[in-house]
Specification:
The complex is a heterotrimer of chains A (210), B (693) and C (582). Chain A is mainly alpha-helical and 210 residues long. The radius of gyration of chain A is 23 Å and the shape is extended. Chain A contains ten helices and six strands. Chain A folds into two domains: 42 residues; 162 residues, no CATH class. Chain A has a three-stranded antiparallel β-sheet with strand order 4-6-5. A two-stranded antiparallel ribbon of chain A has the order 1-2. Chain B is built from 22 helices and 22 strands. Chain B has a seven-stranded mixed β-sheet with strand order 10-22-21-20-11-18-19, with helices on both faces. Chain B has a six-stranded antiparallel β-sheet with strand order 2-1-3-9-4-7, with no helix packed on it. The N and C termini of chain B lie far apart (71 Å). Chain C is globular, with a radius of gyration of 23 Å. Chain C has one domain. Chain C contains 21 helices and four strands. Chain C starts with a helix and ends with a helix. Classes of the chains: A mainly alpha (210), B alpha+beta (693), C mainly alpha (582). Chains A and C meet through α1, β2, β3, α3 and α4 of A and α1, α2, α3, α6 and α7 of C.
């Protein structure tokens, strides 16, 4: 086959399949998404009574205070930034990412157990000391950073460990909180696939409406 | 087919080694050769061993100066000792591989020497066109020259007899001491070989080969291995071994920066040791020895193969095409019964049959004479000197006698004789067909006998199937080899013999053209075909077949077309050749598998100990004493396994006629699983023995 | 714990169960038999054939097939490179991302055209929606279809049929397999919560501290997500791939993704069985990757379940799952399963961070990529598996005393050259050589984040991932240039990233196109051979015995080559952890 014919076929196939798979297919899916599943297609956004977006049902938010159930440690602080000082331009695009620390890396242990250092810049508070200080019995999910840094969930055990702290701070009965936790737990698919997780943002939103 | 009776039974061992080679001194010569083969130009032909050889030189350098490639150790003395030992073992590894090849070649060399001794220059009497005789050296003879040889002469060159009858001693090439009769015209016995000796009378010979290209010259070249080229299979295997060697070269070359990064540095001598342990040195060192030994086994079996390719192809053969006569049945059919027709008595028939056979020198003819004279007291009732014998020809398919009184007596194929009777105005009695059918059903050959237009009856020639063939065909069938019998007999006779002998298929009433057709048909189905032949009209079929074995007693044309020549002229040897071919391939495969399987143990011996600084000492499952001891033990094993396997490489893995799956199971167990386990044990033992801390 | 094993077991069971159905369907597609969608798709196919100018009945030789594959891939690559380099002004860029550096664009292009999707970029910050949808999403179809086409051509050749026509196979792979299934799968993902929008980032004040805002990245994800898994591409729309809640929001989507990832390579073995008219052999061969896969899943999952002993000690428990880099909704079981399946299949998508796995996980994921046949790449995995079978036939077949043959075709020099080069040599060249260079100059070239053995694993993982066309990363390397936004903000480009981008390009290309050409030439040669009839003297390759032998050959020739790396990487790390760290 001549080079010209070979090249012509290559170019024509590139263009024909481009139209089919990179234009028609996504357009079809965009149409289905926007028409049939508008809520999911636009990011499962949660709106408050004023119809303002307060977050996404699928994306976690940072919580560290004793009035809220705390979320997992995140390397990107859940893609958040101070709009006034966003040097990393996080708010322009949104980010995700993980620690990439190996189990054999001492830095991982230091992050979890903390490390004292004469230079306060170098000192690390440590997840476990932080949790213990807050009166929370540490669980694995609360000391390990998540994969996406956006994990919306904590484990039911991680939530249970925080009940007393939140109840005390808000002056609520622990059993009220247990109910809330149960209502905001996403179960396994078909009761089999995946692990149950307590959606921290939804739980805390519910807390605020109590 | 004068020798066919000698070879019906007989295992490989009972056959003679011809020519007798002087085996003493083979080992001394092999040791000398091992050093000669250290020449890099020779070693480079074997990529695996070449790497070892290069490694030896590098380790030698770091023995002289351990810090040549950067400081490795403060304790240079200790380092030097270790490097020196490694150098020594690597050197021995190369030497052992050379030795294996040299021993394999040695046998052939010895055989060649004894052949060469027969090929001294002789004075030949060359016939000039004007009829005069000129004495010339045999080396000056050219193709087309005519020479005269007389009793006591060495025949100066290969040739065809054009005149004269003489007995010739061919023991120099066949080992058969009984002289052979040579005469012109007959397909089989008119060719003579240079180097054989004429015992009586004289011959005029037409030279058919130029000097240096005669049969003995070719034989010398073949057994000596001078023309040895790698077989297709060997080439493919060499490719695989080369790729594996390259892979491990990359693995070992790149491991150094990795080891440095994790602060478990190692030295160049140790890396070379690792490399040599991992590359397939066992099969690399023995591969050519296996091939040479395969050719040699064929030669010991008194068959000369023109190429290793042909020996290898024997193992792949799917179909054997065998002539009935001489191969499946004894060459001679014997007259067993006379069946008279037309109201003739059996005595009358015997009388006519005897008359038809008096000039017939074939064993069949002689057996008819014998039967007629012994059982029926028949007598020759005419003057032999005035009667004339009619020779058998393929066209008439009859022979007989023209009597002095003008009567024509004929015997031959029933159809042919019927035709003859009709042409003389005679009638064909119906009984003749019954007799014909009866003989055929018994697997015999019916010969009709007539005198002019008068049909006398049928002679029952009985075919005798060679003993033990049935079992061998069964074996072949189990190996997946099909046998096809070719015969000039009619279909009924053929089927009876076929059944008795146990062949898978037969072609009846076959002509020489049928032979080539059946070969082509099988080949078109993708099969490899082997056949034997001796006549000139077999030559095309011999050339067409993937393995063509010519009988040494056969014509020059047949021998040139074939890729093997059987010096014993025993067609049943084809069956043994299949086994030899398979054995060659199995040996190669077994040692390859063994060699590669060994790597697991070598990895586990070396890696954990040399990278002990990386804290992987727990992988040292063999519990070897120290890194030094582990490396030396693995290398010693690696070197010693080559000479340890030389006998196996030379003798070949024992072959059993089993199905492919049974063979695989058996050999995987021995050479695969065994290849994984054996080095673990051996390396541990060596580690315990050597005084290295 | 039991619950975790149950979900692992059921997922694998589903995968095995769909194999004959899907494999049979693919066989019908490639043998041009009637399929369900013919009424709609036949006219579409014809339209595409005429647009490209291809005669559907025209058969190609191996060399022609390879040339067509490579020339079309080159043009496709040029298109995507152009799109990425010009994304700054092209439409569909709501997040206003300028063009990345040239080396990032080049690496991304080559990474996607080779079906690897190794990402030295973050989806959110480096690329526009347009580059992802019109560029990368496009390659997810064509690179997968190229692999499938080559795989099918190889199967055809192996079974003695003409190789077929590259463009026909390319188109049918898309219109009959990848596209229809993607439409269904993408709708399922959409319904489960995966976004599909052209709208940009949503910025919201956080609940706890309204002074801090959260940026919620979105995009046309659902359609991209499904073909990413089905085509074994694995390049995530977002930086963190299927760990991102928008790519993989729950147990359902995770299951859909796992099934999609493994369905094509595992079913293709069955497709071979149909072509060869020997389902028994297909099933036996299937057992090799399946058992390796199961072994690796168990090995990995046990370690993730037991967790990091050093952290467990701090938590005062004997056992706590290692959740570093893992999402709560997937836990140890689904994370371990996903990690093994994605590296086994050369998909490379991740739902948890392999870098933070216990050494067992590093061992399993690395080994998967070294082997490349634990179902393996789209089309190529099956082809590699059978190339191993050819080598096993050659090495051991001699032991039955015949020139080795496979399906009646003799394995001779040409086959040994191509097969041994292909499966034994390409990988060491593409992994070990650049890996060793990098390790020789770790400070200048690598930018390794973790010390010691793990750092070694990171480097070798990166090249193994590139060469095997997997695309997942141990990450933690200085392999990314600053994002275009950061560069616009004045960030300096990095030398280590340049080295990584260029050196992995070498591994990507070597790991993709050398095998493609070799496989096609191998298939071409085999298809032209006169078949030898089978007798009892023929080595049967459809027996349990021979399958076991093949597994042994794979272990010794395929895996042992990389034993030093495994020993100095994950194995040494495992011993280190068991001795106790810090």
């Amino acid at each position: 086959m001549s080079f010209a014919r070979e090249a012509s076929r290559a170019v024509r196939s590139t263009l024909a399949l481009w139209v089919l798979t990179a234009m028609l297919y996504p357009l079809l899916m965009l149409a289905i998404g926007q028409i049939v599943f508008p809520y999911q297609a636009n990011g499962s956004l949660i709106r408050n009574a004023q119809n303002e977006v307060v977050g996404s049902a699928l994306i976690g938010q940072p919580f560290t205070s004793d009035r809220y159930f705390n979320s997992r440690p995140s390397t990107s602080s859940y893609s958040t930034a101070d709009p006034a000082a966003d040097e990393g331009r996080v708010l322009q695009t949104g980010v995700s990412g993980a620690s990439n620390l190996a189990p054999s890396n001492v830095a991982l242990l230091d992050r979890i157990r903390g490390k004292g250092d004469p230079d306060p810049e170098q000192a690390i508070e440590g997840e476990i000391p932080r949790l213990q200080q807050a009166g929370i019995q540490p669980t694995a999910d609360l000391v390990y950073t998540s994969g996406s840094s956006l994990d919306p969930h904590i484990t039911p055990a991680g939530a249970a460990a925080q009940i007393n702290r939140v109840a005390t701070a808000r002056g609520l009965q622990p059993n009220q909180l247990e109910d809330l936790i149960r209502q905001n737990t996403d179960g396994r698919f078909l009761g089999i696939f995946g692990e149950p997780g307590v959606n921290v943002l939804k739980l805390n939103l519910a807390l605020d409406t109590l | 087919m004068q020798t066919s009776t000698t070879a019906t039974r007989g295992t490989r061992d009972s056959r003679r080694h011809t020519p007798k080679a002087d085996m003493s001194g083979v080992y001394q010569r092999a040791i000398r050769e091992s050093f000669v083969k250290l020449d890099p130009r020779i070693v480079v032909r074997n990529p695996v061993m070449f790497i070892v050889w290069v490694g030896t030189i590098v380790t030698l350098l770091v023995t002289i100066d351990p810090n040549l490639f950067g400081t490795v150790s403060a304790d240079a003395g200790n380092q030097r000792l270790l490097n020196g030992l490694i150098t020594l073992i690597l050197f021995l590894t190369v030497l052992f591989a050379n030795f294996a090849e040299a021993v394999a070649e040695g046998r052939g060399k010895a055989q060649a020497d004894s052949l060469r001794s027969t090929r001294s220059d002789t004075v030949a009497r060359k016939l000039l066109p004007n009829g005069s005789i000129q004495e010339v050296s045999s080396t000056e003879l050219r193709r087309g020259d005519q020479v005269q040889v007389v009793a006591g002469d060495m025949i100066p060159a290969d040739g065809e007899v054009v005149r004269g009858i003489a007995s010739v001693d061919e023991s120099a090439i066949t080992g058969e001491s009984a002289p052979v009769l040579k005469q012109p015209g007959t397909d089989i016995s008119s060719s003579v070989t240079g180097g054989t000796r004429i015992l009586s009378d004289e011959l005029i010979i037409n030279v058919t080969s130029d000097p240096g290209q005669g049969f003995i010259d070719r034989m010398i070249a073949l057994v000596e291995g001078a023309e040895r080229t790698k077989t297709p299979n060997e080439i493919a295997l060499t490719v695989l071994l080369t790729v594996l060697t390259l892979v491990f070269l990359i693995v070992v070359a790149t491991v150094s920066p990795l080891a440095n990064y994790v602060e478990a540095p190692t030295t160049i001598a140790i890396l070379i040791s690792l490399l040599v342990a991992l590359i397939p040195t066992t099969i690399g060192g023995l591969l050519s020895a296996i091939g040479i030994a395969g050719m040699d086994r064929v030669a010991q079996f008194n068959v000369i193969a023109t190429s290793g390719r042909a020996v290898e192809a024997c193992g792949d053969v799917n179909t054997l095409v065998l002539d009935k006569t001489g191969t499946i049945t004894l060459g001679n059919r014997l007259a067993d019964e006379f069946i008279p027709v037309n109201g003739h008595s059996v005595e009358e028939l015997a009388q006519v049959a005897l008359a038809a056979s008096v000039f017939d020198e074939t064993p069949e003819g002689k057996s008819i004479v014998q039967l007629a004279e012994r059982e029926y007291q028949a007598k020759v009732g005419f003057d032999r000197s005035t009667a004339e014998g009619v020779e058998f020809s393929a066209r008439t398919r009859m022979s007989g006698t023209d009597l002095p009184n003008g009567r024509e007596i004929r015997k031959g194929a029933v159809d042919a004789v019927k035709g003859f009777v009709r042409s003389r105005g005679g009638k064909i009695p119906a009984e003749i067909d019954e007799a014909y059918a009866r003989v055929s059903r018994l697997g015999g050959t019916p010969l009709a006998v007539c005198q002019d237009g008068e049909m006398y009856g049928v002679i029952y020639l009985k075919d005798i199937v060679k003993a033990g063939l049935r079992e061998r065909f069964d074996q072949l069938r189990r190996m997946g080899v099909k046998t096809i019998m070719l015969t000039g007999d009619n279909a009924i006779t053929a089927s009876v013999i076929a059944q008795e002998a146990g062949v898978d298929d037969f072609i009846a009433e076959a002509t020489p053209e049928d032979k080539i057709d059946v070969i082509r048909r099988e080949q078109n189905e993708g099969k490899l075909v082997a056949m034997t032949g001796d006549g000139t009209n077999d030559a095309p079929a011999l050339a067409q077949a993937n393995v063509g074995v010519a009988m040494n007693s056969g014509t020059q044309a047949a021998k040139e077309a074939a890729n093997m020549v059987d010096l014993d002229s025993d067609p049943t040897k084809l069956i043994d050749l299949v086994a030899i071919g398979k054995q060659l391939l199995i040996t190669r495969g077994a040692l390859t598998t063994f060699s590669i399987a060994n790597d697991i143990a070598k990895y586990f011996a070396i890696i954990p100990t040399i990278f002990a600084a990386a804290g992987i000492g727990a992988l040292n499952i063999m519990g070897l004493k120290s890194p030094q001891s582990a490396i030396i033990s693995a290398l010693i094993y690696n070197a010693l396994i080559i000479p340890a396997l030389i006998p196996l490489a030379l003798k070949g893995v024992q072959f059993r006629p089993l199905t492919a799956n049974q063979l695989l199971r058996r050999n995987i167990l021995i050479y695969g699983v065994g290849g994984v386990i054996a080095p673990f044990i051996a390396i541990k033992l060596i580690d315990l023995i050597i005084p290295f801390s | 714990m039991l619950q975790g094993w149950i979900q692992i077991g059921l997922t694998l069971l589903i995968l095995v169960a769909i194999t004959p159905l899907f494999g049979g369907y693919m066989a019908r597609v490639y043998q041009e038999e009637k399929t369900f969608f013919d009424r709609i798709l036949n006219p579409l196919d014809r339209l595409l054939y005429s647009a490209i100018g291809v005669q559907p009945k025209e058969n190609m030789t191996g060399w022609q097939y390879a040339r067509a594959a490579i020339s079309s891939n080159i043009v496709m690559a040029l298109l995507i490179f152009f799109l990425i380099m010009n994304q700054g002004w092209l439409p569909l860029n709501p997040t206003r991302v300028p063009a990345p550096t040239w080396d990032t664009a080049l690496h991304t292009t080559i990474s996607f055209i080779t079906n690897t999707n190794q990402q030295h970029y973050s989806g959110e910050t480096y690329l526009s929606y347009g580059s992802q949808m019109l560029g990368l999403g496009y390659h997810m179809f064509t690179s997968a279809a190229t692999g499938l086409a080559v795989g099918i051509a190889f199967i055809r050749g192996l079974t003695g049929k003409p190789l077929g026509n590259f463009y026909v196979d390319l188109i049918r792979s898309i219109t009959r397999i990848l596209l229809p299934i993607s439409i269904v799968g993408a709708i399922a993902l959409l319904a489960a919560g995966v976004p599909e929008t052209l709208a940009g980032v949503v910025v919201v004040p956080t609940l706890e501290d309204p002074a801090v805002s959260q940026a919620i990245a979105r995009g046309p994800v659902a359609h991209y997500e499904f073909i990413k898994e089905l085509g074994e591409n694995g390049g995530g729309f977002f930086a963190i791939n299927s760990a991102h809640p928008f790519e993989n929001p729950n147990g359902f989507t995770n299951l859909v993704q796992l099934v999609a990832i493994l369905s094509v390579p595992s079913s293709l073995i069955y497709t071979y069985g149909v072509f060869a008219n020997n389902i028994k052999q297909a099933l036996l061969v299937y057992l090799i990757p399946l058992s390796i896969l199961v072994g690796f899943v168990i090995l990995t999952a046990i370690a993730e379940y037991n967790g990091n002993p050093a952290v467990n000690a701090l938590l005062n428990v004997d056992q706590a799952p290692n959740l570093e880099g893992k999402e709560v909704r997937f836990g140890w079981a689904q994370s371990a399963l996903y990690a093994v399946i994605t590296t086994a299949s050369m998909c490379g998508a991740i739902n948890s961070l392999h870098d933070s796995f216990m050494p067992n996980g590093g061992f399993a994921t690395l080994s998967n990529m070294f082997l490349q046949i634990v179902f393996g790449g789209q089309g190529t995995g099956t082809a590699y598996l059978f190339a191993y079978l050819l080598l096993a036939v050659f090495v051991t077949g001699l032991m039955v005393g015949r020139t080795p043959e496979f399906l009646g075709r003799k394995i001779e020099k040409r086959e040994v050259v191509l097969a041994s080069f292909l499966i034994l040599l390409v990988h060491p060249i593409a992994i070990l050589i650049p890996g060793a260079i990098t390790m020789a100059f770790p400070d200048q070239l690598s930018g390794i984040s973790n010390p010691g053995f793990h750092g070694l694993s990171q480097v070798m993982y990166e090249y193994a991932s590139a060469a095997a066309n997997n695309g997942s990363g141990f990450e933690g390397l200085g392999d990314s240039q600053p994002s275009p936004i950061a560069i616009a903000g004045g960030a300096e480009t990095s030398t280590t990233a340049l080295w990584w981008n260029l050196s992995t390009c070498f591994s990507l290309l070597a790991g993709r196109y050398i095998p493609i050409v070799s496989l096609l030439l191998l298939a071409d040669g085999l298809s032209r051979k006169q078949p030898v009839p089978e007798t009892v003297g023929t080595l049967r390759t459809d027996t349990g015995l021979f399958t076991g032998v093949t597994a042994g050959v794979i272990l010794i020739l395929g895996a042992l080559t990389f034993f030093p790396i495994l020993a100095l990487g994950p194995i040494a790390e495992a011993f280190l952890i068991s001795r106790g760290i810090g």
